[in-house]
Amino acid sequence: MGKWRDVTGKQMKKKFTRLVELQNTGAKDNGYKSQAEVWLTIDFDEINGVEKMCDKLWTELKPLYSELLTYVRNKLVDFYRDDITFPDDGSIPAHLLGNMWAQDFESIFDIVRPYDIQNENYDDVLKDQGYTPVKMFMKAQEFYMSLGLPRMTRKFRRKSIIVKPAGRKLVCHASAWDFFDDDDFRIKMCTNVTMDYFETIHHEMGHVQYFMAYENQPVVYRRGANGGFHEAIGDTIANAVRTPQHLCELIGVACPSPGVDTHEADMNYLMKKALLKVAFLPFGLLIDKYRWAVFRGTIKPEHYNSEWWKMRMEYQMISPPSPRGEEYFDPGAKYHVAASVPYVRYFFSFVVQFQFYEAMCKAAGHVHKPLHECDFFNSVEAGTILHDMMKLGGSKPWPEALEQMTGTRDISADSIIRYFQPLMDWMKIENKKTTDKQTKLKSKK
Ligand SMILES: [Zn+2]
Asked: Which single residue of 91, 146, 204, 387 has CA 20 to 30 Å from 102?
């Protein structure tokens, strides 16, 4: 990871500093205070309310994240007990979290897994069943169509890039494109046959479904209700696809079997999900919290790296594995920072997708059952409320689009908190057990 940072962020610090100056000049010429206000306007139509909304959501989400972080830290401390001394400040060293940017913790699931059951390797199963990138795309399309949403277009099938072409340079970062030209919508990604990529396909296809749904709007409204909405569509669908119920039907994994305690299987499932969706929340927020401050000049170039790590600590409780001076520029290791793409849309997406999901589950008749068990496959009712909202594009303020679909005008943390409540209750008990054990050990000494 250290090497990655040497060849990425470190190399671009000067260029980034210059880019910030240029972007601010452009912003001021257009009547904005700084580039931060430009970004907030692009993604959310308004400026003042968005940052307050971020802070309010984060206050509501923090207890869930903190419980997860404590749980994960305890597990890691135990796992590395002979090799690594953890910092006293309660943080986790970033290199132990199994992700280049420590932006989610999904790949350390095996270390933190609540119960030692159902050790299936989904990637192997996909390969064994003859899945190819094309078949994965077909399956994703099938799910969307089961909701009454349209098939991908002819041009999509002809012109998308779904595997890395030989002998050509390509930015493999997955993306979806609206060419604003009849039915020309495309995805560009370098698909491998894994469950993660399967999820990414649903994500990108969600963008394309949105493009198609608002195709008949005037050009200025051919966009998402806000940036977060666009990112949330495909994830909402993937949340249903990834349920054990659906995966069992689809590829015969995660099926309930006689010997397996359903509560234990549930906790494993929710933990895996939390390592992806909950762990991401503070990261999704701080990337732009950081850049807004950079654009506004409250973070100066001579403190770019130290302020970055301060924020990593404040929001994520993550620390660098070794001291990081100002000769480095660690935020630059992240694609969206290097490519200057606004990021807070992902934070909102991770919250609002659970609102979309809950609304679609209700529409599909999934009530009186835990939210995380809901798979709305084949529910045209669920598809219709999603499609009707998507058709609006950017023609209505986003609170109206949200209200039409979910009945509320606010982006709210309630749904994601409700979704993870069973895990939250379980982690509280586990974390308390660990604290009690530690206190006992201390008093013995
Ligand atoms: Zn996306």
From this structure: 204
Structure tokens at 186: 């495309």
The helix or strand, by DSSP H or E, that contains position 318, with its residue range, turns out to be: strand 318-319
In 84-215, DSSP assigns E strands to 92-93, 175-178, 185-188
Percentage above 90 pLDDT, the chain: 83
CA-atom Rg of the chain in angstroms: 22
CA of 175 to the centre of ligand 1 (A): 6
- Residue 321 alpha carbon to ligand 1 centre in Å: 30
| Tokens representing residue 378 in the block | 């084949």
CATH code linked to domain 1-126+239-431? 1.10.1370.10
pLDDT of residue 428: 98
The string of DSSP letters for 368-395 reads SS-GGG---TT-HHHHHHHHHHHHTTTS
Q: In terms of DSSP bridges, do strands 175-178 and 318-319 run parallel, antiparallel, or are they unpaired?
A: unpaired
What angle in degrees, to the nearest 10, is found between the helix axes of 227-241 and 244-251? 60
What is the Cα 271 distance to its own chain's centre? 15
Residues with active-site annotation: 204, 336
Q: What are phi and psi of 282, to 5 degrees?
A: -65, -35
Do the Cβ atoms of 160 and 190 come closer than 8 Å?
Answer: no
At 405 the pLDDT is 98
- Domain spans in the chain, listed from the N-terminal domain onward: 1-126+239-431
